[in-house]
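Sample intake sheet
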Amino acid sequence: MLTQDGCRQRQRRLLERMKDQRIAAAAVSNPKNVYYLAGALNDPNLPQVFLLAAGGDSLLITNAAPGEHAAQELALYTAYTLERPFLRHTMHAEAAALAAGFLRGLSGAIGIEFDSASTALTSALPPGARPVDLTPTMLDLRRAKDSDELECMRAAVRLAEVGYRALKSCLEPGMSECDAYLIFLEAMVQEAGTAVELRGDFAAGTRAIRGGGPPTLRRVEQGDLYILDIFPSYQGYSCDLCRTFAAGQPSPLQQAAWEHVMAAHSILERRLRPGVKGSDLYHEVRAHLETFAPAKGSFTHHLGHGVGMDAWEYPWLTPGSEEPVREGDVIAAEPGLYAPELGGGIRLERNYLVGRDGVTPLDTFPLSL
């Protein structure tokens, strides 16, 4: 879980941005960003607001008192009782009324997240206040990961690797994709001791060439390659990993394709540095992948992206991305090759923490077929 010290550090960085933009107060309403700043991991389907004034005063508005939080004050609204209906608009109105009390008397720019702020919250701004979109600022702040964030991400990685270990030990022809999914999920749940959100691609064989997707009753066949691209969420953070398993002994062609994709990771580990543009990385790795003649032209997806509270974040490693990589980014890099002759495809995805002079993988599970 996020720590109070980590949340206060992030609040200080937000205050610096607010000073630069001359924002009198921030009203953060995206539940993920509320957790990021206040450490309260409450029900993300219910309204939550974290308010931070330019002077440093803060208020957390939520529906249930968290065990710990990094706000100076806490205000609770009633989400449910037996005596009244359970309606979202009434909860938004109550949360907004509490926010209005904190914001009363302020003037000038008030930062709100245009992509998540309710109409009620927007209406709660003081007369004459000017709303400013805080969404780009929050997304930018979230790129460089603090130590407590990395611990949450490593916890998600460990769960994913437990799932990979459980499935690889028993994968065999005749097993359905749904069977594989349940083996993977059960291993993660047993390790976590609670429910775990598991999303990703569980498409085996040539079905993976057509885009992957959730599991079906399709059965794994002898000679299939099984791409398992998963992005579970745990303690508010995600990882995004991919391993490819062979159903049976890998063929010489499959092994050669695997070696080619592994060489792409060698390029990434050498070139992934602060200041390098995402498009440059994409073009260099794609040029390498194109030299594998049996699957030439098959690498048609992005090379990678940032990962953190969401499975897809900035920066992107795509042909059109001029965004440079930064120190502190965690990037999911996923080169791949696909062809019917391969029995599907090989995609191998690692999560790299970008340091000043190099990268450190967050994952350790073997990438072998």
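Comment: The radius of gyration is 23 Å. The mean pLDDT is 95.
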